[in-house]
Automatic annotation (TrEMBL), chain B:
Organism: Actinophytocola gossypii
InterPro entries recorded: Bact_solute-bd_prot1, SBP
Protein name stated in the entry: Extracellular solute-binding protein
Secretion signal span: 1-33
Keyword Cell division recorded: no
Pfam (any one): SBP_bac_1
Record keyword Iron-sulfur present: no
Amino acid sequence: MPWRRWAEIALLAGPGVVVFVTFVIVPVLMAGYYGFFDWSGYGIPTEFVGLRNYELILTDNAFLEAMWHNGFILVMSLILQGPAAIGIALLLNRKMRGRDLIRVLIFVPYVISEVIVAIGFSLMLHPTGAVNDVLDRIGLGGLAMDWLADPDVAIWSLMLILVWKYIGFAVILMLAGLQGIPDELREAAAIDGASYWRTQWHITLPLLGPTIRIWAFLSIIGSLQVFDLVYVIWGQYVADIAGTSTMATYMVANGRISGEYGYGSAVAVVIFLISLVIALVYQRYVLRRDTEGALTEGVA
Amino acid sequence: MMPRRYRSGTQVVLAGTVAAALALSACSTGPEASDYQEGDPYTLTVWTNYTGEAGLAWFDGVAEEFEATHENVTVEAQHIQNEELDGKLQTALNSGDAPDVFLQRGGGKMRDMAEANQLLDLTGSAVDSAELREKLGDAPYEALTLDGRLLAAPQLVQPGGIWYSKDLFRQAGITETPKTVDDLADAIQKLKGAGITPIALGGKDAWPAAHWYYFFALRECSADTLEATNESLDFSDPCYENAAEDVVDLAALEPFNEGFLNTSAQQGASSSAGLLANHKAAMELMGSWEPGVVKDLTPNQEPLPDLGWFPFPQVQSGHGDATALMGGKGGFSCSAGAPKTLCAEFLALMNSEKNQESFYTAFGSIPLHVDAQDVVRNDYDKQMIEALNEATYVSDFLDTNYGQQVGTVLNQAVVELLTGETDPAGLVAAITAAAERE
C-alpha cells in the first residue's frame, strides 16, 4: 500500500484508536491487573493475592444471586418486549388516525433519563405512594403491596419499569425494519389469497428477522449491564434484600462503596468476560446469517 | 482471510498497551516533601465539603485572614459535594496531585492514607500547640493520632442522639424524654396509640438504620471493649450480639415509618428527615447535623420550632456508660507533599476562637473550642455541649472506626436484621467474616 493510504488511515482512524485504547483497552487491562490485588485504593497496590478475589466472587452467594437476576432480566426482556414490540410496530405501520402522535409517545420513556424514571417510579411505588393510593381509592386496596421491598414482587416491579422504559426503542427498530420490507411482497401474497395474519407470519416476520436479531442482541447486552435504575431506586444497600441486585450494583457495592478496589476490579473483569463470551457466541451463531455475504471481509 | 501482517500488528499494539498500563500503575510513587521557604510565593490548595452561602462565606473569611498574615500566599479552595469528595480525593492522592489541605473523616480511611504515606505528620506543629490542645480537648486529638503521629487537626464533633418533635410528644402524652430503653418502648406505644409514626428511618441509605445498632453497641459494650475492637476487629464479646438483639426487640415494636426500606435519609419531604420536618414522625436517631437538614425540609424552610434532642437511652443490663456519646469527628489533614508550617498554621487559624464561633453561626455545628461555646443559642446545642463535657467516652461512628469494608458489611447486616433476613448471630458472623477478609 502506498504511504499516502497509510497516512490517510492514520489520520482518520488515529484519534479514534487513541481514545479507544486510552479509555477502553487500558482501563480493561488495568482492571485485570488490579484484580489480582487486595487493594483499598490508596497508594499503589502491593498485596498480591493471585486468584483469591475471583475465588471469593464465584463463591459469594450475593454475586451468584445478582447474576441470576441479570439472567432473569435478560430472558424476561426478550419474552415480554419482543412480541409486544413487534405487535405495536405492526399496528403503527398501518394507516390510522393519530399514528404519528402514538409513535412519538411510545418513544418518550426511552428518551427520559434513567435517573428521572427511577426517582419517579420509586415515589409512585413506595408503600405510601401513588400506586397504592389509587388502588385503595378504586376499591382494590387488597392489591396494595410493598412493590419495591417485597422480595417476591420487587424484581417484577423492576421488570415492568424496564419494559416501560425500553419498549419504545424496540418498537422504533421494528418499525424501521418494517419500512424496509417492499410492499410488492405483501401485495403478491394478497393476490395469492393469503390472509393478513398469514402474510405477517410468512412474509413480514422472516424479513424482519435481521432487525429482531439485532434488537435481541442490544437487549441482551443491556440486560447484562443494568445498573442505574436499580442503583437509584434501591440505593447502595437495599437491592440485595429486595432481590433486585445486578452484577453491576454488586460491583459498585463491593468495590467502590466498601473501598475494595482490587475486588471490585475483579468483579468488573468477570462481568466483562461474561458479556464478551455472550456477545461473541451470539455474533458467531446468530448474527452470522445476517452478516454473511455482506461486505465484511477485507476488500484489499 | 486476514492478512498475517495485521495479526502481528495487533500483537504489537496489545503488548504496548500492557506495558503502558503497567507503567501507569507503577509511576505513582509517594510524593516528595515540600521545599517551601517562608516568603516564597505559594498557592495553598484546600478541599472541603462545605455547601451553602453561609458556609462558603465562612471559609472565604478564614482564607482572607490567612492571606493577610502570610505574604505571597494565596488560598485556593474547592468545595466538593460531600458524596463526591472521597472518590475525587482518592484519585488526587494516588496521582500525586493532592490538595495541600483536605477534609479528613478519620477511622479506617485515615489509616489507609497513612499506610500509603499520603499524610503529613502534624506532631509538634502550630496546630499541635499546648494551648489549642487544651481548648479543643484531648479526645478529638487522640482520635486523629495514629502510632504517635498526629495526622489531622480536629475541627468539629457531631454527637448523635435522638431528635424529636416536642409537639408530637405532647400530643401523645409523653411528658419526659426517655431515659432508658423501656421508657423508649413506652413512648413508642403512646405515639402509636395517638396515631403517630414513632420513629423515622431512612433504611435505603443503610447507615441511618445502622446507627441504631451502633448506639445499642455503645450501651451494651464497655468503652474498653469498643476501643479494643477498633484495633482487633474481634467481635466475639457477647455485647455485640446483645446489641443486635436490642435492635430486633426494637423492630418488633414496629416503630418505623411505613416502607422505611425504600426511604432515603435526607432527600426531600418523603425522606426520614423530611418526615420529622413535616410532623409525620416523632423521632429520628441522627448526628448533630440534623437541625440543618430538617430546616431545609420544613414547608417554609425555617428551623423546626419544636425540635428537641435527648441522648440515646440507657440499656439497663448493658456494660456501656450512660454518658458515653457517639458521633462523627471531622478534621483536616495535610497531604504528604504540602509545606508543613504553612499548612499547620492554616489549620490552627481555622480553629481559632473567633473562627470557631463564626463556624457555629455558619454551619450550626457546636464548636469544639471551649471559649467559643458561649455563642451557642439553641437548647439542644447546649444540651449536647453539656453531654459532651460530661461524657466519659466519645466514640466515632462504628463504620468509620472499622473501615469501609467491615463498615459496609455491618450497615448492610443491620438492614437485613430489621427485615428478618438475618438474626443477631448472623450479623456477628457476617462482620467477623468481613474482618477476616480485611
